[in-house]
Amino acid sequence: MITSSEGPTRTDLLYEDVIDGYLDGRFVERPWLARLVERHLGDPAFRSILLCGGPWTGKSAFLAWLTRRHLLSPRYFIRRLSNRPLASGDAWSLLLSLGHQIAVLRPDVMRLDLEAEVVQDIGRVAAGGEVTGVEIHELRTSPFHRTAVQVEPAARDRHRAR
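The structure assignment produced for this chain is given below.
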């Protein structure tokens, strides 16, 4: 559940509570399957797997366990009727979730901050005049970046209206 006023926490983004729930005392490790999956994913010719099984056969639990073996791997658990942000199961939430996870797990891959600072020396402003600090018509940035815009207008001599 979201606890931070600034957005999802690392625990939320990485599904730590979901993973912990799967890895309770009832979980049975399957090292033979892990070796098979890891060998397959280590082959550059194959970059994905499809893990099939009926309900309650341990597919999600197995993948949760793999995340403990590969701590820098993004993960996504689809939950129907989820109240968890970025986990509704559609392509948009999947891609946003994975992008935010990569930003957390591999900050070296993504530059996390975009900062713009505007300092103006306006000079004289006539009575009734207006000054616009900055006007941005369009700003495109990654949803994984924090954006900070600082504007510091400074008028040296402002004519006072009588």
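Interim note for the steering committee: The two ends are 57 Å apart (CA to CA). Residues 1-5 have pLDDT under 50 and may be disordered.
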